[in-house]
Q: What sequence folds into this?
């Protein structure tokens, strides 16, 4: 079991190494798109937290 | 100078109408045979898009607004085509699935985010497909556990026979079964002129209000889903489609988009004609209501609902397994035997059986799950669409198949509208009174 988990984690480390550097050329358009995406996700997480708080309050 | 004229005359006289027609027939037959060989991923993903949740949405839309929102489907069909057509080009050119393309191009952060979100969204959606299938067969007094077991066995056999081609043909058969809503609509004798008016003249029955806005957003949410992007691109790769197959892949996707709109439209026609004004909460409830009016009609709707859930389930579970295989470097083709790709099939069955088991747990929060499906899908959809457009604009990756300016204008407009409306849909699902 321990070896199995060890194997999985080493695989994940290998994936992280393999895809460590993004291949995409960071043009202005790409930077803006990724920035907006990050903002959008933060907004969604905020909405989910708000929902969670309102459910707990009830 | 005379010779060419004579040759031209001979050419004109020599190839008469019969040989010319034969030549044309041969060309069409050849095109059709290639198309039939290439067709599959587009039709399957588009028809499977009308899954159990989708059928419920369309049934409720028809019962609530009659034929009045049919025109919206006419717009959604091309939008879905534009999005999915990009996955055909991306898959055929890069020979990589969407998950792998994201990891490689945008790095590990966005890669893990997309993979985790996809698996979670797929698993939750799979539960809703099982809810639809068990509800549909319960109309025929089939216990839910029997449905879950039989469906899991059939889906297991479909993938374990070891050939993508066979899986695809069986899936296409189930796609054909989805057309059952078309004869069902003819059975209720709708007013053709009213149907055409609803489909061709845009309008908002009862005026534009929160209610209608919610339904429009729900229809978008069911027509364009993140798993579709991942599924079709992986299917294109697994099928071994090449750059030369792209035109056929586009036609395949277009035919699928037409089928999706047709099926959705006919579901709306059925409930708009027979159940107008009835509050519909699920397609199974609509089937039961129709049973009271016409036994065959109710049966058709229940079979259609089961088929929709089944089609959704076979595609969604594969979308995740393909993505896992691409990232973890496992063998991940339906052409592999179970011994050659144990992790690929293992992840497929874990996802399938765990989702089926949840439906059988007494008191499981199925309503909450259905709600979260929408929210999780909305977190993934913008990312998947934005990455899709960025990848399609990468000249190094796509070469001459990259998006043109016109394609970018259309696809970016579609993506912005979809993201805005689907986000509002998720917010209104979480806080139902927010737009009131």
A:
């Amino acid at each position: 079991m321990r070896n199995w988990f060890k194997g999985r984690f080493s695989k994940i480390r290998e994936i992280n190494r393999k895809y460590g550097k993004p291949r995409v050329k960071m043009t202005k358009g790409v930077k803006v798109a990724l920035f907006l995406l990050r903002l959008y996700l933060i907004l969604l997480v905020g909405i989910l937290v708000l929902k969670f708080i309102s459910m707990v309050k009830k | 100078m005379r010779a060419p004229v004579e040759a031209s005359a001979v050419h004109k006289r020599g190839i008469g109408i019969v040989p010319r027609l034969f030549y044309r027939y041969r060309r069409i037959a050849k095109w059709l045979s290639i198309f039939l060989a290439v067709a599959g991923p587009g039709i399957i993903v588009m028809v499977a898009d009308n899954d159990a949740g989708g059928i419920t949405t369309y049934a409720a839309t028809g019962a609530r607004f009659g034929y009045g929102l049919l025109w919206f489907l006419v717009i959604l069909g091309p939008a879905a085509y534009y999005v999915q057509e990009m996955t055909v080009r991306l898959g055929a050119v890069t020979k990589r699935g969407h998950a792998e393309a994201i990891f490689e191009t945008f790095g590990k952060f966005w890669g893990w985010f997309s993979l985790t979100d996809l698996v979670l969204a797929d698993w939750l959606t799979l539960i809703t497909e099982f809810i639809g299938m068990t509800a549909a067969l319960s109309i025929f007094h089939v216990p839910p556990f029997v449905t879950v077991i039989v469906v899991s066995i059939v889906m297991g056999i479909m993938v374990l026979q070891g050939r993508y081609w066979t899986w695809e043909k069986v899936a296409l058969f189930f796609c054909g079964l989805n057309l059952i809503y078309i004869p069902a609509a003819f059975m209720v004798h709708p007013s053709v002129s009213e149907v055409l008016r609803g489909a061709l003249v845009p309008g908002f029955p009862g005026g534009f209000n929160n209610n209608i806005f919610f339904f429009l957003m729900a229809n978008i949410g069911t027509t364009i889903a993140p798993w579709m992007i991942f599924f079709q691109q992986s299917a294109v790769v697994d099928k071994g489609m090449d750059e030369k197959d792209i035109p056929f892949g586009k036609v395949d996707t277009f035919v699928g988009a037409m089928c999706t709109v047709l099926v959705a439209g006919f579901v709306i026609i059925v409930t708009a004609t027979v159940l107008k004004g009835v509050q519909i909460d699920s397609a199974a409830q609509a089937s039961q209501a129709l049973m009271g009016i016409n036994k065959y009609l109710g049966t058709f709707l229940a079979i259609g609902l089961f088929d929709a859930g089944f089609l959704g389930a076979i595609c969604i579970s594969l979308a995740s397994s393909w993505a896992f295989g691409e990232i973890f470097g496992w063998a991940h083709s339906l052409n592999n035997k179970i011994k050659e790709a144990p992790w690929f099939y293992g992840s497929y069955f874990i996802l399938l059986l765990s989702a089926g088991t949840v439906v059988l747990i007494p008191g499981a929060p199925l309503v909450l799950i259905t709600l979260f499906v929408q929210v999780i899908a909305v977190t993934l959809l913008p990312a998947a669409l934005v990455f899709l457009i960025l990848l399609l604009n990468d000249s190094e990756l796509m070469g001459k198949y990259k998006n043109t300016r016109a394609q970018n204008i259309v696809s970016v407009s579609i993506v912005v509208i979809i993201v805005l409306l689907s986000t509002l849909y998720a917010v209104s699902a979480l806080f139902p009174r927010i737009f009131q």
Chain B touches chain A at residues 103-108, 110-111, 113, 327-329, 375, 378-379, 382-383, 386, 390, 394, 396, 419, 423, 426-427, 430-431 (CB under 8 Å). Residues 98-138 of chain B form the longest helix (41 residues).
